[in-house]
Design goal:
Number of strands: 21
Number of helices: 27
Function: Catalyzes the formation of N(4)-acetylcytidine (ac(4)C) at the wobble position of tRNA(Met), by using acetyl-CoA as an acetyl donor and ATP (or GTP).
CATH class of the largest domain: Alpha Beta
Keywords: Acyltransferase, ATP-binding, Cytoplasm, Nucleotide-binding, RNA-binding, Transferase, tRNA processing, tRNA-binding
InterPro entries: Acyl_CoA_acyltransferase, GNAT_dom, P-loop_NTPase, TcmA/NAT10_helicase, TmcA/NAT10/Kre33, TmcA/NAT10_N, tRNA_acetyltr_TmcA
GO molecular function: 18S rRNA cytidine N-acetyltransferase activity; ATP binding; tRNA binding; tRNA cytidine N4-acetyltransferase activity
EC number: 2.3.1.193
Radius of gyration: 29 Å
Amino acid sequence: MFDDDINALCHWHQILNSRRHRGFLWLSGPAGEVRARTQTLIERLALTDVVWASAASPDAFRTSVEPLAMKKARTRLGTEQGAVVFDAFNGLDPDAFGALAGTVRAGGLLILLTPDDWGTSPDADYARLADYPFEWSSLDSRYLARLVRLLRADDQVAYLAEGQPLVVPQNEEKTAVVPVPVEDADCLSPDQARAVAAITKLRRRRPLVLTADRGRGKSAALGIGAARRLMQGDPRILITAPRFSSVAPVFERLAAQLPEGVLQDQRFVWQGREVCFVAPDRLQASLDERGGDGSVLLVDEAAALPAAALHDALRAFPRVVFATTVHGYEGSGRGFALRFRDRLDRLTPQWKAMTLETPIRWADNDPLERSVTRLLALAADPPPDDDTAAELYHHRLDRDALSRDETRLEALFALLVQAHYRTSPTDLRTLLDGPGIGIETLESASVAGEGQLLAVAVTVDEGGFDERLAEQIARGERRPRGHLMAQSLALHAGVVDVATHRLRRIMRLAVLPTRQRQGLGQTLVEKVCDGARGDDMALLGASLGAEPGLMAFWQRCGLVSVRLGLHPETSTGEHPVMMIRPLNRQGDTLKHLLGDAQREQLPQLLAFELSDLSPEVVAQTLSDQAVMASVPSLKARMQLERLALGQAPLVPSRQALAWQVHQRLRACAGETIPAELSTLCGLVWQGRSLAWLARREGLTGSAQAMCWVRQQVRLLLEVEASHEHADAARGEGGG
């Protein structure tokens, strides 16, 4: 490395320091030479607090740097580094790259090391993408090629390649950053001061949703606000997050605001008042004990927590702050804000939203933030609705063309991010290079990309195993990478043939927000079915969180549930449900076999393993299941009539009532199910008590609950009688 190059980089680094900006330096060439050159640069630029991230341990360092395994990158969230060396010679993990880039402090550098032919073929991190039977080296590398194109076109990236002249961003001469005046002396930006004021003045049943990109002082605002609430007299404030390290900056700020306080065992105590960290699972298990009048809850990195847990916290705590990172690496804050908005509107319509825009850890218009944001497609917005689409055109996209059309790719990915609760940077790589992935859209023009993007579906092909491997999967002896539904249904439902046939699973489905509830989602699912049928797929599948509205949508698309997971997903807190639709005769046979397995297992599962499942989910599941005979015995009908008249108790009538509820649910498949039917599901299908029913329906005790049950039975019998009369009238008219 020549002195001229060192001097040019030193001058650039000085400019970054004076502006409180961060820089992006990219070095490429042979691994040994690039690593040695990097260590020389660290010494000559006098970089401190340097972390060297790599999938494999590099050779011994000459400089004082800290090695970090790529898989541990998330442990650095909330910390700051003077420089991060991201060694991609053994593979680039997009999630780790994004997480570590956000830890570089003002005046620091992100240094990316790559081979000189980077982007021409997959790297070793693609092993995580290689579903059976693919080898990672055989996959496409559109994602990496895209990164190379964007880096080369970015005039804010310094680039040093073997045998090529150094390219350094052409910045203006050093200019001092003039701080923006802030009235609140404890805050570093007007945004942060407004957030602290809102936390301090938090009102009952008016939760605050605080969103911010990284480096905006969100955690510090929570700490300052919590300190002021303690000074105002709050005896106890609870704070929860995915892990304690996520909120360490909150407690650091608490200690700075209240130096007389003591931090011990994840609790900060000051003058007998306290701020306590509670892990999400412990909080969920003790909502009744910890919530109630006067309680205050701060939720940090809310997008990383299950939606159901947030919903329960909203009900239990009268004063709540939900804070999340907009472009987080454990969950997209944008998807969280949009999906959670419906619950907030329903439960606490006077909730308040606030966004921190001004960066604190570095100055505005930071070049590293802009570069990383574009590389990972973090800030792209969904396409605007021009409201001119009169016709719908279906397209199956070419991923080669899509990867080279950055504007279109960003719009499509943004629509997927907005529609789903959790999206990570790695998902973009999967979209472009995952084997068996298909992308289908509805657009307003007959030529793909020339009109309005209205809806998108991302699919993956599964199954097609040979009989020997399928049998090993069903016995739990083999678990090839990928093939989520095919393997799960073979193993847990015991239907081996699911693994030998091919199915197409819809991984993600998104519709432009302004075009939702107009049938576009169902239309696109039908188009996906047509294509899958033409590709000789036996089944169309979807795996989703068991949420009644979502299940009803897929039921309207012709899918039925065939497996209900026994444990909730970590990401959503919802039990997973798998749904299928047959596409040919083989698919019909598989549906019949899977249906038989579900019918055999479901009654016992609901009574035991799934007895705590939401009754609404139970009702939605039963609505598409022929679990019981369609015609009851005369004895069952008579038992129900006696129950309705108060001439029979509940226990001997439970089986007959379960049949009646099930028949009524069958008529509701794909529709909104009345709340009363869900309550009855909890009572007769899950074995819930009359005391539970009384609490749920707001009744004073078991006696009132029993009266409520008898009233519902009378209504069910009346509905059945009206249907029988209508059927008889149609029969007479036909005669």
